[in-house]
Amino acid sequence: MNEETRQRLAAGLESQPGDWRTALRGRLPGQEEFLDTAVIGGLEVKDILAGKIAESRVPPDVLRAFHDQYPGLGGSFTAAVQRLARDPARLQGFINGVKGKLFEEHYVDWLNQGHLPAGYHAELAHAANQPAWDIAIRDGHGQVHERLQLKATEQFSHMRTALALHPNIEVVAPHEAYLHAAHHVGVAGHLVDSHQSLAGLDATMHGAVDHAEAANPAAFHLPLLAVAVAAGQGAYFWYRRRWTALEAVRRTSERGVLALLAEAAFALSLSLGVEPMVGLPVSLGVRVAGGQALHNRRRRREIQQATERVIALRRRLEAREVWAAEEPV
């Protein structure tokens, strides 16, 4: 190829539509990614804050009982309730566990507030699943004076079983059960009044669970605001003639799908028990990675089109060069 042909080829490349040089370069997240991640992140932060507000409405003694009963569970009470919401049996077991620990801690507090002999104090068992007893009462020298087992229930069959297994350890029962103990063989005379109402415990737990379920940040929401922002930007660029109508529709659709995937990633991470502040960057990472993947696909297509145009142009120029060489002088 002579110099004149190379110049013609260069001139042809300059006249090709589209900025093919940009397609050959790398790329950082652009305006669309920053705008979409800001909108998606804002919506998810709102959901996270809703969960934190719901957690703040849960009584502090319930939160303390939750962490003491399930020290290895991690996360928040709200997240635990929402994670178990789809399995009513497991949720009820969780509620009963927290209620039982709440019952124990309330009774220990009551005992230590002037309801023991001078110098005595009550303490909980160090293990949440201590099999025989739940509370130990120690004298002024630190020696165990008495052990107690607690049952936050009105079912006397549970109390009879506990007394049969450990006959030397009295059972502390809710006030309602204690009042009716005289009518039940096997427990009469072996129960201790907790001075706590089981109905009050149930009401406290139901209120705490209701607050946790009301937040529900793990619920999946259609990212309508993100799609609306993308559509508005597409309409603006079409009006300014920066994009064709087809390009505006295509980009809006792509951004809507990416927003949907980001929201799904956030909801999935929370449903798996991941902390919301971890699920947030996961969601935004999905959006940015998806945008990069779409850009890479467009770049490959543009490079392929540019390559095909260069090849076609070179062939035409070479054909002209051959024709010119064969033309008689």
Largest sheet geometry: 5 strands, mixed
Spatially, the strands of the biggest sheet line up as: 1-2-3-4-5
The number of helical runs is 12
Distance between the termini: 20 Å
Overall residue-averaged pLDDT value = 79
Q: Report Rg.
A: 35 Å
Helix content: 55-70%
Which regions contain 5 or more consecutive residues with pLDDT less than 50?
15-20
**Beta-strand residue fraction:** 5-15%
- Tell me the quaternary state: single chain
Secondary-structure content class: alpha/beta
| Helix-strand string | HHHHHHEEEHEHEHHHH
General form = rod-shaped
- DSSP strand tally: 5
Write the SSE topology.
Elements: H1 3-14, H2 20-24, H3 31-56, H4 60-69, H5 77-84, H6 88-111, E1 121-124, E2 135-138, E3 144-150, H7 156-165, E4 170-173, H8 175-179, E5 191-193, H9 198-215, H10 224-239, H11 245-271, H12 276-326
Parallel strand pairs: 3-4, 4-5
Antiparallel strand pairs: 1-2, 2-3
